Amino acid sequence: MAECHPVGFQWVMEAKARGAKLIHVDPRFTRTSALADLHVPLRAGSDIVFLGAIINHVLSKEKFFRDYLLAYTNAATILTEDYAGPEDLDGVFSGLDRQGRFYDFHTWQYEGLEVQAASGERDREYGDQDGTRGGSAAVRQAGRGEAHGSGGAAVPPGTPERDETLTHPRCVFQVLKRHFARYTPEAVERACGVPPEAFAQVCEWLTENSGRDRTTAFVYSVGWTQHTVGVQYIRTASILQTLLGNIGRPGGGILALRGHASIQGSTDIPTLFDLLPGYIPMPHAHSSEDLDSFVAAEQTQKGYWAGMRGYTVSLLKSWWGDAARADNDFCFDYLPRLTGSHGTYETVMAQLAGQCKGYFVLGENPAVGSANGRLQRLGMANLDWLVVRDFSLIESATWWKDGPEIESGELRTADIGTEVFFMPAAAHTEKVGSFTNTQRMLQWHHQAVEPPGAARSDLWFTYHLGRLIREKLARGGLVGVPPDSAPGDVGGVAPDSTPGDVGGVPPDSTVTDERDRPVLDLTWDYPVRGEIAEPDAEAVLAEINGRDAEGKPLSSYLQLADDGSTTCGCWIYCGVYADGVNQAARRKPGGQQDWVAAGWGWAWPANRRILYNRASADPDGKPWSERKALVWWDPDKGRWTGHDIPDFVPDKAPGYQPPDGATGPDGLSGTDPFIMQADGKAWLFAPAGLVDGPLPAHYEPQESPFRNVLYGQQRNPVRQVTGFGHPSNRLQPSGGEPGAEVFPYVATTYRLTEHHTAGGMSRWLPYLAELQPEFFCEVSPELAAERGLEHLAWATIVTARAAIEARVLVTERMITLTVDGRRLHQIGLPYHWGSNGLSPGDSANDLIGLSLDPNVHIQEDKAFACDIRPGRRPRGPARLDLVRDYQRRAGITGQTGMEV
Amino acid sequence: MTDPAAASGYRDPSPRMGFFTDTSVCIGCKACEVACKTWNAVPDDGLVLTGMSYDNTAGLSADTWRHVAFIEQRRPVAAGTAPDGEAAEAADGVRWLMASDVCKHCTHAACLDVCPTGALFRTEFGTVVVQEDICNGCGYCIPACPYGVIDQRKGDGRAWKCTLCYDRLGAGMTPACAQACPTESIQFGPLDELRERAAARLDQLHGEGTAEARLYGEDPGDGVGGDGAFFLLLDEPEVYGLPPDPVVTTRDLPSMWRHAAAAATGLMAAAAAAFAAEWLGRRG
User: Fold this and answer.
1) pLDDT at site A289
2) Residue A429's pLDDT band (boundaries 50, 70, 90)?
3) Residues A652/A670, Cβ–Cβ less than 8 Å
4) How far is CA A519 from each of CA A459, A479, B2, rounded to the nearest angstrom?
5) In terms of CA atoms, which chain B residue is nearest residue A18?
6) pLDDT higher for A333 or A153?
7) Which one of B29, B50, B210 makes the best mutation probe of the A interface by having the most chain A beta carbons within 10 Å?
8) Residue A602, SS3 per DSSP
9) What is the reported pLDDT for A226?
């Protein structure tokens, strides 16, 4: 955190100054470790064993927060007899379809629920007759697991059976105990390389600091997520924090540090293929044929997701305005439909297959920052056109003339047909907008200076691109526009058209094609200002916030209606422009308000700072302790009150019991704090929502020098590896497989404080480039001795995909571990470098093969196996020959690493 | 001398301002280096991988006025408590010290003493600043600095160093490095106040068992009369590349002049004696 989030780390330092203990668990000794009270180095890719063993400790030593656990979690809920877990099936869960590489979720269910088809999930054509089966392969791959960013998945209707004594053999608590029984300190030592003393210290500090009077927070980043079991890493932490009572309470939680500014915002208002704003799932071509079936399939029976129809209709009204009417399903058919996974790596494969012809790269540098950079470049070389918007000529804009494949002779510039457009981008200081960071807080930033030259904001680019396309379509479609536009007629705008002039698109134009209506009917009427016609960002924020029938700004998502009388561009952001005031721009200093600081910025939903904060009070509505008081029930006023805005129906008494058949928020009792969950409980066992298991199980990374010491199952059986077959994406043998010894070391990638992601914002700046001027690898003195690596000399790192070179830093901060009885050396590779800029170097991501988490399609680049050798890499075609030689020695074919 | 500004002739000067750099909370982010260069328009210091841990600017220079040192150490640490409650054996551990260095703005500043042009001067805040439009690049100040701070810029010839953001101070602002520091490792303020804060912090660390914590440059009785920018260190000063016992290099100038005068007198006497002897010899 000190490495990648030094500004946020000031709060950790402040907590430390008040006596907080800081534990850092990381393969490497970093700047965070330097300030930690305890650094625990472990093998990259073994965290589920580590966390699972803490869960086992908490369960077996009875260190959990019993009252919290009983009241607020599904610990007491009883599972059906059909469920079988890795204990019974040597590492897999019941319902595994080995042929199709997916799980049928049917058996992961609560006892007592009505097992009936949820109509919307029914997809006859694709063979899924039952909503609990997790959908067809096509629907499942379309990222359904990701659509719960603001709440849980649906469970079938009914009242699950519970055993409040927690003794029923099939209650979640007992299932949990059995599941984690093999996650012992000995397993931690064997799989993670962590000695029992250090592990015991972590357990002691963590459990001492959790309970009524104390809470512990977990902070993680992509070191947890970028794995083939990445989502389950977070699940393991969730289970642990729930057992300890550290969710919904001040000082608790599991905090995701995002990759850069407003990454949280880019999932709230998503740049993801499978989501609409506010985590509403993108409709699927087969299972979401109309609004009714879409809503019926996706909304949960109880809790706030029950309002999904209102959120969706308000979104459609926001986008299509008057064209969205009850009699046309509010233009639901205008929304694109998914037919499978369309993530970034599928897009690259589609480029290579010639199916994807055009590509926008905005503020991203996939040639350096995405896994298997070589595949990224080869994909871009197969496009018709490519638009890159960035500050500098990043590698993704120049690979066609100076990329590694040009150097090696595999590609020739003259043979590449891709037309590349580079558009200079404005920096955050040169534009207006909001950041939404990890705490879900929107913070408005104002413009300091005008962008230089032709640089423009993304808002400007998107708005004017849309405007030009709409004008073209209004004149009869994109096809058939005369190519001989008048001089000065930028982008084919009609000479009499002024920027922002969109009133000219006739809503009932007869000259247009019906298929153009979704674009022509869009509300695309933002005011612009200044010489460059910059759209007004605050007008966009006001649109996102939403309006009532009179056009007045809404103040809460509870106002959203499903009859078309309200608009809202993102339901969770509703209220950010309450009373016509930009709430995100509020900057009341901390010293002038209480510790919750509700007057700084605006946090979704409803300016709540801590989600599920009903859990900060006991079932009767009293704070668990004075020290940790946050919200509580005021019996005199009959309302919830406190320091934060209660995340609960304001007047729902602790004693409230839902009447039979109640739905929505009314269906949850006064002691159900997890109001976005279908049953109002925190899920220790997840009966739905995850495609790779209701509980986390340790699987080895796709490429690992070790066998799985916990189960016979080596890898996550439903990890996403199919569909990426390409000679440039060969996978390596693992564990005990022959050839695995060719790649004996574990490598992990990361960032340095001095650079930013793929380097576009740092390698061109002398003040930053001089601080870390060259790509380096970090190795231990022991590995240096073993492989003849010299400090500051060169090393070549090889995988089945690439050979790259780096300067060597020999450092005792790289700690050699003893894993499963043998010495393991780990190699550290910062991933910032590419061939351009003031500080050029090879790209670590070129080493990575494509194997993804099946829930969210993230690549596994935080743990992989490689070899390292002294000296520089070969030049020209010899570079590929070296990689092929390694492939040959390891016996690698297109089938290697593809086993279930 | 407690107030160098008053001693320099300022009537009613501002309280002496300075830095207290608490290296025990430095996270090595180098924001101070970047903020300093950005505000003061200092050029980059060359793009060279030094291999000195994560330190690639290597030291204070004409082009680096704040410098973060990174020191990797191997040392025994307690590896926690074993499950049976027994303290585990001490294992080899790693310690990574980070410290942001800067011009010390000495009470007795030798650079200022030797400057023949008056380019170096004592400000009303008690700090020491080079005036770039007066410096003639003679370079006398460079060997005069006991810390090796001030430096000549190649291709420019003039001497450059931290100004403690003299321009910002004049406008009532905090120096850029202290403003940018996320963990308050770099604290700016009246020196008296900083010394009190530092003493309290030292007590706290000692109370927590960090016996090796010490202050550096806070003592008005040291060889430079105390630093305007002083530090809390977690090891010997030499570990951070700081001189253990700095002495203002002009301290001995007066006595050197006295000795020189005495020597000159002696030489003259010897010459006279030699002359006399020769004369006497001729006579003999």
Assistant:
1) 83
2) very high
3) yes
4) 17, 15, 74
5) B204
6) A333
7) B29
8) strand
9) 97
Residue type, B264: A
For A70-105, give one letter per residue: b (16+ CB within 10 A) or e. bbbbbbbbbbbeebebbeeeebbbbbbeeeebbbbb
Answer whether the bond into residue A619 is a cis peptide, omega within 30°. Answer: no
Could you give the CA distance from residue A269 to residue A263 in angstroms, rounded to a whole number? 10
Task: Report whether B76 contacts B217 (CB < 8 A).
Answer: no
Which one of A21, A29, A40, A197 makes the best mutation probe of the B interface by having the most chain B beta carbons within 10 Å?
Answer: A197
Amino acid at A540: V
User: Would the pLDDT of A134 be above 60?
Assistant: no
Assigned token pair, A709: 């010491």
Tell me how close the Cα of A840 comes to any Cα of chain B, in angstroms: 11
Which letter, b or e, does each residue of B176-189 get, where b requires 16 or more Cβ atoms within 10 Å of its Cβ?
A: bbbbbbbbbbbbbe
Burial environment of residue A565 by CB neighbours within 10 A (0 to 12, 13 to 18, 19 or more) = middle
Q: What kind and span of H or E run contains A640?
A: strand A639-642
User: Would you call B182 and A812 a contact, using CB atoms and an 8 Å cutoff?
Assistant: no
Q: Encoding tokens for residue A768?
A: 């930053």
Measured in whole angstroms, the distance separating CA A163 from the mean position of its chain's CA atoms is 35
- Cα distances (angstroms) measured from residue B259 to each of A884, B223, B247, B263: 78, 21, 19, 6
Q: What angle do CA A441, A444, A445 make, to 5 degrees?
A: 135
Which of the four pLDDT bands, split at 50, 70 and 90, describes residue A142? low
Structure tokens at A21: 């203990």
Q: What does chain A come to in residues? A: 900
Tell me the pLDDT band of B251, cut-offs 50, 70 and 90: confident
What residues does B102 pair with on adjacent strands? B66
Judge whether B135 and B158 are in contact, CB under 8 Å: yes
State how far the Cα of A79 lies from the Cα of B219, in Å rounded to an integer. Answer: 70
pLDDT, one tens digit per residue, over A541-558 is: 999 999 999 999 999 999
Residue A400 C-alpha, separation from nearest chain B C-alpha, in angstroms:
27
Asked if B51's CB is within 8 angstroms of A809's CB, the reply is: yes
Asked if A566 and A317 touch (Cβ cutoff 8 Å), the reply is yes
Give all strands (DSSP E) within A751-832, no chain letters.
Answer: 776-779, 794-798, 803-810, 817-819, 822-824, 826-830
Say if the Cβ atoms of B34 and A35 lie within 8 Å: no
Chain B residue with minimal CA distance to A196?
A: B82
Task: Please list every residue in chain B whose beta carbon sits closer than 8 Å to the beta carbon of residue A195.
Answer: 79
- Of A105-119, A388-402, B167-181, the range with the lowest mean pLDDT is A105-119
pLDDT at position B230 = 98
Pairing of strands A631-634, A639-642: antiparallel
Convert the pLDDT of each residue in B233-244 to its tens digit: 999 999 999 999
Chain B residues with at least one Cβ partner in A under 8 Å: 25, 27-31, 33-34, 37-38, 43-49, 51, 53-54, 56-57, 72, 74, 79-83, 88, 94-98, 182-184
Confidence band for A450, pLDDT divided at 50, 70 and 90: very high
Q: What pLDDT score was predicted for residue A2?
A: 94
Average pLDDT, chain B: 90
Only one residue has tokens 């202050």, namely: B215
Q: Which amino acid is at B30?
A: K
Q: pTM for this structure?
A: 0.92
Locate the chain B residue with the closest alpha carbon to A194: B79
Express each pLDDT in B76-105 by its tens digit.
655 444 444 444 444 568 999 999 999 999
CB half-sphere exposure, A835, CA atoms < 13 A: 19
Asked if residue A487 has pLDDT above 50, the reply is no
pLDDT in tens, A620-650: 999 999 999 999 999 999 999 999 999 999 9
